[in-house]
Design a protein that fits this description.
Elements: H1 5-13, H2 30-40, E1 42-44, H3 53-61, E2 66-69, H4 77-93, E3 101-104, E4 106-108, E5 111-112, H5 126-131, H6 135-151, E6 156-157, H7 182-198, E7 202-208, E8 225-226, H8 230-234, H9 239-247, E9 252-255, E10 259-262, E11 265-267, H10 275-284, E12 290-293, H11 299-304, H12 306-317, E13 322-324, H13 328-343, H14 349-366, H15 369-373, H16 378-399, E14 401-405, H17 412-415, E15 422-427, H18 436-448, H19 452-469, H20 472-482, E16 486-491, H21 498-506, E17 509-514, H22 521-539, E18 545-550, E19 565-568, H23 574-585, H24 596-603, E20 614-615, H25 618-634, E21 658-665, E22 672-681, E23 684-692, H26 701-714, E24 721-724, E25 735-736, H27 742-749, E26 758-765, H28 777-783, E27 787-791, H29 798-807, H30 810-821, E28 825-831, E29 837-845, E30 865-872, H31 879-896, E31 901-908, H32 912-916, E32 921-931
Parallel strand pairs: 1-2, 1-13, 2-3, 3-6, 6-7, 7-9, 8-10, 9-12, 15-16, 15-17, 17-18, 18-19, 23-24, 30-31
Antiparallel strand pairs: 4-5, 10-11, 14-19, 20-21, 21-22, 22-23, 24-32, 25-32, 26-31, 26-32, 27-28, 28-29, 29-30
Length: 937
């Protein structure tokens, strides 16, 4: 039976679940409550660098809870801090219970809303950062970016871009995405999310379900569409979204405005579809954060549904924040639409409160009134600016990529004499919104304009004229650094003109700049024409060196080997061009690489590279291993146990288990590039861990470590079996089970038979205080005459160790032996009426010594973890009841020790379901794999 309205009233009036002041004072009517709730579900902006009556009205009278700022709002860091502070003050004085969300696009590269060359640093685009090959650098840049925008009061970054360029050449997203490899995109995006979050700023992944392969119909009213099937999306485009959600630190997801047309789905606007938001994003991918719709001021949406209908559809679909960018009349229409949706019964109170709680939770982690009303502003920015400038220069220098350098034309300081002329040919491009060129253009147009019409006319003219100005400083910088003559002119869609031909005839070397030539085909045609002309002139004995520089998409001439010298910068910000100049001159040797699959194809030739593998030495390598683990933590999802792992996690000092560990290291810097841990006990040789610095993958470090580890194990006397994964230490009970099987595939390629693995999981009850035992379990145990006791020490342990040895590997026996001697641990025994031992399990506190060897037991963020480890029960008719009984006793013991959550570690595949029925959820999954030694000789 449906609930009556009165049953929802307490919920409707209790809007504060996150320790905020009560929203609903006694006597406040439901209409006002609705208005406040509606305001919290909208995110809006406006044009202008000052507060307008319209935006003030939205905050004061319509309770608008979130603001989006763009480059049109922001003149400088100081003005931004003042503007944001004023917005928050208006909200505070209007009685808002919590501060405004202030969101900003600050992706770096060409997409930055805030520009201030004195206080805000420019960093490379997402693809440029990936070109550095360093997820750690991605983390540092994200943290620096978030720290800067946070200083001026921004609390949400609309990023990172999680899209995969599955059709890289013709997509407008370009360098805003990491590249075309889903796993590489996941790696860098998670590193960026961690950087944003560690700086205290909320994150918003985009653009779900993907802008990486859109089909454009031609008309401005037609929506770009996704034509891939959900199956195709699942193994490519959706991988970074899934991994970012799994990482657990993504606060919001931006849902795109594209259409989807395939056999299983026909959607005109993704952000208006419950199939996309509720079904795909929420139910299938498990996202519980805030869903933000694409801006509903799109003409295609307005023409088809109207803003009122579209806004209601967006909320119905599952969006929590509906975006309306700037048109005040449209914004008021959206508010009216939501009110009508509630009055018509289309939008329920439960639906509004679901969104409200998500938005309030997001606000609780990224802002407070103390923080919102007192942004540190210039005092902090001036303090951190020198460090961030150094980071910016380092990042841009490391991103510059020389794809080909035929005839060794680079550096120019060695291939071009000072007296020889150099020609620079650059396209006409729009200045980046946040750049010195745009700032200069705006200042000039405002100074000249005496009326609104004049202002508009000057801006239009300035946009055209500034196309030449974008690369003017590049030409001046090249001329300065080489102390030689430079000729510089632009080229357009008019093609090769006589002026170009004359200059080419004069010059000894020509640099052509392209910016997205695959989408601006005149650039491609012009470049090929010049290349052909240079080839012909070289045939007559003239020196005509040609260098092509792609300053946006690296795909312009990546595969065209007729362009013999090809350089990529991944954006054309002033900082990128400064690094380019230094690279061309030879101030440093560019080390960047092409993104995604192109990097991998280039590295195939390096796969046979042999790396020196050395024995691990604690004193020498301990710090390097600690740093390597930190790097892996920043670039991985929580299903990999790096966060609480330390170098000591791998060293057992157990006389019954021989161990030997190996490293690949830089002997000059003592940095570790990779680590492998091996163990040998009772005839079994085990690889307990093998991992490589993310920035050093795909160059055979892992293979070299694996080869050395296998050689060491096969030399052991009496070896009977080889194994990947072990319970003690339980850092990696097996090969981490990833979504696309890439890790298992790697072990396949180095000789392991992974067809029939033993799936092992770590499971968890997150809220132990709210847990209750399954109904009837206690009574079933009593009827079966099963009793339990808890033992410590080795005095009464012989029967326990014998049972474990008979039904698990020797390393599990050593795990039990260690636990029995550890003060914070004990073993629960299950017995029948005849006192026969039926099963065992280890119980421990997370703060004990065992947690250093089993990271999932280690407390994080001050929580109190209780452990239930390695339940052992021989197969019988009572197996299910015994396993659940042991887990039940373990949970009771954890609760008695005041643990806040309970972790069940080393759970075999066939028992997952019965523990799930008790309220445990899978936290991490691994595949233990075994081989016979003769298969690896």
């Amino acid at each position: 039976m449906a609930k009556s309205d009165s049953e929802f009233d307490p919920l409707w009036q209790d809007l504060d679940r996150y320790a905020h002041p009560l929203w609903c004072p006694t006597g406040v009517g439901e209409k006002k409550l609705q208005a406040e709730a509606i305001g919290q579900m909208l995110i809006m902006g406006w044009d202008g660098t000052e507060i307008t009556p319209q935006i003030r009205n939205l905050i004061e009278n319509h309770h608008l809870g979130s603001i989006i700022l763009t480059a049109k709002n922001l003149k400088s860091a100081e003005q931004t801090a003042s503007l944001v502070q004023e917005l928050q003050t208006i909200a505070h004085q209007a009685g808002h219970p919590v501060p405004l969300l202030i969101a900003l696009d600050q992706e770096n590269g060409g997409v930055n809303s805030l520009f201030d060359e004195d206080y805000i640093c420019q960093f490379p685009s997402a693809m440029g950062i990936a070109a550095t090959g360093s997820p750690e650098l991605a983390y540092s840049i994200a943290k620096a970016t978030a720290t800067e925008v946070s200083a001026v009061g921004v609390n949400v970054i609309l990023g990172p871009v999680l899209d995969v360029l599955t059709n890289a050449r013709h997509q407008p997203l370009g360098v805003r995405a990491t590249g075309d490899d889903p796993q590489e995109a996941s790696l860098y995006c998670i590193a960026a999310i961690n950087g944003f979050k560690d700086a205290g700023v909320a994150t918003c992944g985009k653009h779900f379900p993907s802008y990486g392969n859109l089909d454009f119909q031609g008309s401005s009213l037609d929506m770009p569409i996704i034509t891939q099937t959900l199956e195709e999306l699942s193994i490519s485009a959706l991988v970074p979204f899934r991994n970012a959600i799994g990482a657990g630190r993504l606060d919001a997801m931006f849902v795109g405005g594209c259409g989807i047309q395939n056999a299983g789905m026909n959607v005109m606007h993704a952000c208006l579809s419950d199939q996309v938001v509720d079904d795909l994003l929420r139910n299938e991918l498990g996202f519980n954060g805030v869903a933000i719709s694409e801006c509903l001021e799109m003409q295609s949406l307005i023409q088809e549904y109207g803003v009122k209908g579209g806004t209601v559809m967006a909320v119905e679909a599952g969006n929590d924040l509906v975006l309306l960018c700037r048109a005040h009349d449209v914004q008021l229409e959206a508010i009216s639409g939501l009110k009508l949706g509630i009055e018509n019964g289309i939008i329920s109170k439960e639906r509004i409160f679901t969104s409200l709680r998500r938005v309030l939770k997001m606000k609780s982690v990224c802002t407070s009134w103390q923080k919102a009303l007192n942004p540190p502003g210039l005092s902090l920015l001036s303090k951190i600016h020198p460090t961030h400038l150094a980071l910016s220069r380092k990042a841009y220098d490391q991103s510059i990529t020389v794809v080909r350098n035929k005839d060794n034309l680079l550096p120019l300081s060695q291939s071009l004499l000072q007296e020889e002329e150099l020609l620079l040919l650059t396209p006409l491009v729009k200045p980046l919104p946040a750049s010195a060129a745009t700032k200069s253009m705006m200042e000039k147009s405002n100074a000249k304009a005496s009326s609104l019409h004049d202002k508009w006319a000057h801006q239009e003219k300035g946009a055209i004229m500034s196309g030449e100005g974008v690369f003017r400083e590049l030409g001046k910088s090249i001329a300065r650094i080489r102390h030689g003559k430079l000729l510089h002119t632009s080229y357009t869609a008019n093609g090769l003109r006589p002026v170009h031909e004359n200059l080419i005839n004069r010059a000894s070397a020509i640099i052509i700049v392209t910016a997205d030539a695959n989408r601006n085909l005149y650039q491609s045609g012009f470049t090929k024409h010049v290349a052909m002309m240079c080839h012909m002139l070289r045939g007559t004995g003239q020196k005509k060196s040609l260098i092509v520089v792609a300053v946006s998409s690296p795909y312009d001439f990546a595969m065209d080997k007729s362009i013999g010298t090809y350089v990529c910068t991944f954006d054309f910000t002033e900082t990128a061009m400064a690094s380019l100049v230094r690279a061309l001159h030879g101030d440093f040797v560019p080390q960047g690489s092409m993104p995604g699959t192109m990097r991998k194809s280039k590295r195939i030739s390096k796969n046979r590279q042999q790396w020196l593998v050395e024995n691990y030495e604690r004193d020498r390598d301990g710090h390097g291993l600690s740093e390597l683990l930190k790097t892996l933590t920043r670039s991985s999802t929580p299903n990999l146990p790096y966060l609480t792992t330390s170098p000591s996690s791998f060293e057992l000092f157990n006389t019954d288990m021989e161990e030997a560990h190996f490293v690949v290291r830089n002997s000059s810097t003592n940095m570790l590039y990779g680590f492998a841990a091996t163990y040998f006990t009772k005839g079994i040789g085990i690889i307990g861990a093998i991992f490589v610095d993310p920035s050093k993958r795909n160059v055979s470090i892992g293979r070299s470590l694996h080869r050395r580890a296998m050689r060491a194990l096969l030399q052991r006397q009496g070896i009977k079996k080889l194994q990947v994964g072990l319970a003690f230490p339980g850092v990696f009970p097996g090969i981490p089970a990833d979504e696309n099987g890439s890790m298992k595939s790697w072990f396949d390629n180095v000789g392991w038979d992974t067809q029939f693995p033993k799936r092992i999981a770590n499971m968890v009850i997150e809220d132990l205080g709210a847990w209750t035992a399954p109904e009837g379990l206690s009574q079933s145990i009593q009827r079966a005459n099963i009793s339990f006791d808890l033992i410590h020490g080795l005095d009464n342990a012989e029967s326990v160790l014998s049972l474990v040895a008979a039904h698990a590997g020797p390393e599990v026996v050593e795990l039990y032996r260690f636990a029995l001697q550890e003060k914070s641990c004990g073993v629960v025994r299950a017995k029948n009426a005849a006192d026969t031992l039926l099963g065992t399990v280890i119980i421990c506190r997370g703060a004990g010594q065992l947690s250093s060897y089993i990271p999932c037991l280690h407390p994080v963020s001050g929580e109190d973890v209780g452990g239930i480890v390695a339940p052992i029960v021989p197969a019988s008719a009572q197996s299910t009841l015994l396993l659940q009984g042991l887990a039940f006793m373990g949970v009771r013991q954890n609760k008695a020790q005041k643990s806040t959550k309970s972790v069940l570690s080393w759970v075999l595949d066939e028992t997952h379901d019965l523990f799930s029925a008790m309220g445990f959820e899978v936290q991490q999954s691994f595949d233990e794999v075994t081989n016979l030694p003769e298969n690896d000789q």
